[in-house]
Specification:
By secondary structure, the protein is of the alpha/beta class. It is built from 15 helices and 8 strands. Helix 4 packs parallel to helix 5 and helix 6 packs parallel to helix 7. Bound molecules: adenine and zinc ion.
């Protein structure tokens, strides 16, 4: 399999953050346009070393997205970049409570316009995951999910839970996630990125998620690994993020795949991590020794684990088969 063949492969990604998809140059431009100081600290934007520094930049960049046009532009530009790497479908997460003063309904509508333009121009499609910033606590999460359920916008297919897992334990969000589940929304949560296997287990127990974002700690607990195989838990992993946290030990994604787990590969926060969905597939493919069929199986795993309603999921699977 050549790099060109892998780049051309139609791809699906389930784990990509809108606010993490703003190139530094666009973040500066949005700040200028909105009359705000340049985002970031003395470190230099996206020059982070720890997850805490990373999230500091992420929140700073979230703050320069102010108008509906800003959301539209970021959604469109990030999907255009994905489409150049063969992306055909993405579930894009955004954190409404990182944008005080911006109404969720307005933001969803604006992101929807960016998606519609990218679909018309490049054929790439997307849906939205409303992400709970766990550092904002249980009450804020519940208020947000109530608002999303009330909105009942078909573009929003699920909810997520992100930010620092060492700060907001899953138990705090049980009520918000139960409400989302009873409204038919898909549920996913970041866990086991920095935290341990117990945190992944508790996330599965109390939040009713069918997917885990990252979940690398699963490898450290044979019982959780067995349970994940039995229950078909999907792990929406990200190559660059996994390497960043693993350090010299190397990415846990090859052993996760070798263990038979249901795994997909996404780009997480492409410009923040200096990556893209194409680069993620190239790096994973090289490390795992993928054939084109192996790479395709990872894409199909993502499509199967998506939160699209049945008929739309069937259409995506049919498209992937047709275009493969
Ligand atoms: N938000 C965006 N990217 C994230 C990550 N890798 N971990 C936690 N929260 C995030
Ligand atoms: Zn993430």
């Amino acid at each position: 399999m050549s790099p060109a063949e892998l780049l051309a492969l139609p791809k699906v990604e389930l784990h990509c953050h809108l606010e993490g998809s703003v190139p530094a140059s666009l973040a500066l431009e949005l700040a200028r346009r909105n009359g705000l100081p340049a985002p970031g600290t003395d470190r230099g934007l996206y020059e982070f070393e720890t997850l805490e520094e990373f999230l500091e930049d992420y929140v700073a960049v979230s703050g320069v997205l102010r108008t509906p046009d800003d959301f539209t532009e970021v959604a469109y530009a990030s999907l255009a970049a994905g489409a150049r790497d063969g992306l055909v479908y993405r579930e894009v997460a955004f954190n409404p409570t990182n944008h005080p003063g911006v109404d969720v309904a307005d933001a969803v509508e604006a992101i929807g316009e960016g998606i519609a333009s990218a679909r018309a121009e490049f054929g790439v499609d997307a849906r939205i995951l409303v992400a709970v910033n766990r550092e904002h606590g249980a009450d804020v999460a519940l208020g947000l999910v109530r608002r999303v359920v009330e909105l009942a916008d078909p573009l929003v297919v699920g909810i997520g839970l992100d930010h620092n897992e060492l700060v907001g334990p899953p138990e705090e969000f049980a009520e918000a996630f139960a409400l989302a589940g009873s409204a038919g929304l898909g549920r996913t949560a970041h866990a086991g990125e920095r935290g341990d296997a117990d945190e992944v287990r508790r996330t599965l127990d109390v939040l009713g998620v069918t997917r885990i974002d990252h979940g690398y700690a699963v490898l450290r607990d044979p019982g959780l690994l067995r349970r994940s195989l039995d229950e078909g838990v999907h792990y929406a992993t990200c190559w660059s993020t996994s390497q960043w946290h693993a350090g010299p030990a190397g990415s846990p994604i090859p052993p996760m795949l070798a263990a038979g787990l249901d795994v997909s590969v996404s780009s997480d926060d492409p410009p923040m991590l200096g990556t893209g969905i194409g680069a993620e597939f190239l790096a994973a493919g090289e490390a795992c020794g993928w054939t084109l069929a192996d790479a395709r199986a990872v894409v199909l795993a993502a499509a199967h684990a998506s939160f699209l309603p049945g008929t739309e999921k069937a259409a995506l699977l049919e498209r992937l088969t047709r275009e493969a």
